[in-house]
Amino acid sequence: MPNPVDFKLYLITDRTQVAAGHTLCSAVEAALQGGVQAVQLREKDLPAAELLPLARQLRDLTRRHGARLLINDRVDLALAVHADGVHLGGRSLPTDLVRRLVGPELLVGVSTHSCAEISRAAEQGADFVTFGPVFATPSKAAFGPPQGLEALAEACRGSALPVFALGGITAERAAEVMRSGAAGIALITAILANPDPRSASSTFAA
Amino acid sequence: MPNPVDFKLYLITDRTQVAAGHTLCSAVEAALQGGVQAVQLREKDLPAAELLPLARQLRDLTRRHGARLLINDRVDLALAVHADGVHLGGRSLPTDLVRRLVGPELLVGVSTHSCAEISRAAEQGADFVTFGPVFATPSKAAFGPPQGLEALAEACRGSALPVFALGGITAERAAEVMRSGAAGIALITAILANPDPRSASSTFAA
After folding, report:
1. Taking residues B135-141, what's their average pLDDT?
2. Which residue of A60, A97, B159, B166 has the fewest C-beta atoms within 10 A of its own C-beta?
3. Is residue B2 a part of any domain in this protein?
4. How many domains does chain B have?
5. Which of B48, B50, B93 lies nearest to residue A48, judging by beta carbons?
């Protein structure tokens, strides 16, 4: 059976944003305790040899909390640690090729920034997409200008896949984001940069 | 049947070293015409999306010349383009894990710099190793101080695997390198930086 997209709170890692007093793994563990249901390991500057121990720790943590683990970009690493899926960005291997590599079982998530990209991801066999940035983010340089709630709503209406809203989403804005039709919310800073990732996560989960 | 290590001249790519008037692919094609029997795609700074078209072009070229294609580091890319193998460096996934991912069919080459590393590669299921740098190389900063012919001979004597000598090997030195017990020679600069990669390769092949 293919993995279902059975999560709403999707945490994307960035160890450079982890608040003082936490390691990446302790922050992720706190987030899982707070209600995060899926984690994407995304540390683009690390070589495979350094990603592997991180991926294994996150595999243990996510399994213990009944959460999903996805690996950014490296399909080989996802297979190696028995992750639940891979997440592809614009510089990753094409979605259709990755789908052939991983078979029907593994989740394939794709980062998108337009309705056209969402359609292409669906055609090529993705299971879900992230869409953003919805709002301005501290990491906005990497994600482009904010798209706004209007564009998010349009993207969700036109999408055959679950859409996870990404970018600058705070707990206060989470409700309106979900009302726009998003299947869930993808978070980095709001959880990892918070000194209390557990309570930050549980606010979103609520 | 597992792929045999049936080559002696092993070209490792570095598009930054390609001589004026050549693209990486035209230089590799000329090298194949000159007698190179295996090619490793190694462009560490390129993301997967940019490696893929290069890997596909090299797959076509190597197939047409009856040569092997290996992909550096990215096992997923090797599987995607039906390469003959992968080549692992110190920052790659561990050899034993990669062997489990690719099965017995694909070649697994490993970069080594000591007899201990060669033994470990053999234990973990590698098919062959590169050993070096034998001589000082233009890219010596990346490979450490030269080991010399003595160390190469010792490495070859103690190795259960074919050893490819790497680093600063010129056509003049090729004969003594082979007399040291090397199974073959791995080359970057001597072929790619030569304005005539075909004749450079055929000198080595002879």
Report:
1. 73
2. A60
3. no
4. 1
5. B93
